[in-house]
Amino acid sequence: MTNICIWGDSVMRGVVYDDDACKYIFLQNSCIPETAKNFDIRYVNNSKFGMTAPKAFEKMKKTLLENDFKPDFALIELGGNDCDFNWNEVAQNPDGDHEPKTPVSEYEKTIKQMIVTLREKGIEPVLTNLHPIDPVKYLDWITKDGTSKEAILKWLKDVFKIYRFQELYSLTINKISQQLNVRLIDIRKAFLKAGNLMELLCQDGIHPNEKGHEIMASCLTEYISDYKREVMQGSV
After folding, report:
1. What is the pLDDT of residues 144-164, one digit of tens each?
2. How far is CA 197 from CA 24, 39, 159, 161, in A?
3. Which residues, in sequence order, are CB contacts of 220 under 8 Å at separation 6+?
4. Given 12, 30, 39, 211, which is the most exposed site by the fewest CB atoms within 10 A?
């Protein structure tokens, strides 16, 4: 049996928006349990709604000290919250300077620290990059409570800046993977290849819906299958 721990945000936790209930719920057949069905895997999912890389790193260090569970692999999926802004503050001061929750330099440093920490414990880290988002739907979502869309657009200059800024964090993961020779699961590529992004995201424009989780489960399953074949061929 392979033991895996997961450090992620609401995406890996399986959070989706239920249009009928008008609230966020946990998808029972989300990507992690669906992937685990296909393999002899035991996993602990430490993912949490709103998790950022610094928060995850602090929780990881504490967990590694206090928990007897020692995984073979640690899957890291973080960045979606790190690259987000306090949109109310932006709307109130569209001419000001605003920083994301985790500046990209701090984000890169923290992910690298997580990798080093895991390797020191004999745990192999595996990274996932970020799935693409829909900036138009997301802007509608964050302004649905009356927050000024016009003010936010004044600061952004271009609504697709939201997409590009999130992509920057995803590209940072790709860079770290190459620099530190860490395995990477290319979830972003899987989404982009799948076709119509609108069909894969919830109405908030950021969380994958059930179809999106099917894409992620297929991506994870394919990656694990390829890895197992690689290991078997290496042992021959």
Report:
1. 999 999 999 999 999 999 999
2. 20, 28, 17, 17
3. 31, 32, 35, 185
4. 211
